[in-house]
Each structure stands twice: as C-alpha cells, then as structure tokens.
Amino acid sequence: MEYVKAFLCGGVLCAIGQILIDKTKLTPARILTLYVVSGVFLTAVGIYPRLVEWAGAGATVPLTGFGYALARGVARAVAEHDLLGILTGGVTATAGGIAAAVFFALLVALIFRPKSK
C-alpha cells in the first residue's frame, strides 16, 4: 500500500506541475522555484511533514521534498546553534543531494558532447 500512496502523491505533484506548464505562462524555472518554496512553506505550517509521513518517497523525492529538507535542516540547526543555524542548516541538510546533482551533471557533460541549438 505504501507504493500506491507514494505513486499517488508523486503523481499529483507532477500533474500540478504539468497543469502549471500547460495553463500558465510560468517558465519551468519559476515552477521549480515555486515547488521548492511551497515545500518550505508547507513544512513551516506543519502540513508537509504529515504528507511525508503518509506518502513517504512520493513526497520527499519531488522538488517540494527538497524544500521540506531545507526547512527541516534549518529548524534543526537553529535548535542546535541558535541564529547561525539559519545560514548553515539548509545547506548542511541538503549537501548530499546537491553534491550528487553536481557530480552527475559533470559526468553527463563529460560523456556527451553538448551542441548549441
């Protein structure tokens, strides 16, 4: 059943993104930013942690999950290091994902030859 919940949650988040692409004039970059900020906001008001508890990876893998990880990292760092945690918590909590993204982007750039349009 947890796979079904993850699929439903991830599917709904993807469907919302597709609707935003099709029905608005928002650029993909703005939609991605909107998703991350939405994850932070929904975490701050206490909604997203419940969604993560219900859907698992269906809520943590999409970009809203990145916002959730940022907000959780900042909250944890503020509890441990006071105001300095505002500056360090989000980066510390998401360092693994950021490092993986940079590494795989470099790897793909080395393997494939980019062409201008």
Characterization of the model:
There is one protein chain. The chain is mostly helical and 117 residues long. The chain has one domain (2-111). It has helices spanning 2-23, 28-44, 48-55, 57-60, 63-81, 84-111. The chain is globular, with a radius of gyration of 16 Å. The mean pLDDT is 92.
* Average predicted confidence as pLDDT: 92
Any idea what the radius of gyration is? 16 Å
Percent strand equals under 5%
According to DSSP, the number of beta strands is 0
Query: Low-confidence runs (pLDDT<50, min 5 residues)?
Result: none
Secondary-structure-based class equals mainly alpha
Portion of residues in helices?
Answer: over 70%
User: What's the N-to-C terminus distance?
Assistant: 45 Å
Task: Enumerate how many helices there are, as a single number.
Answer: 6
What is the H/E order? HHHHHH
The structural domain count equals 1
Describe the global form. globular
Major sheet size, sense and barrel closure? none
Which terms summarize this structure?
117 residues; mainly alpha; 6 helices; 84% helix; 0% strand; globular
Quick rundown:
This protein has 117 residues and is mainly alpha-helical. It has 6 helices and no strands.
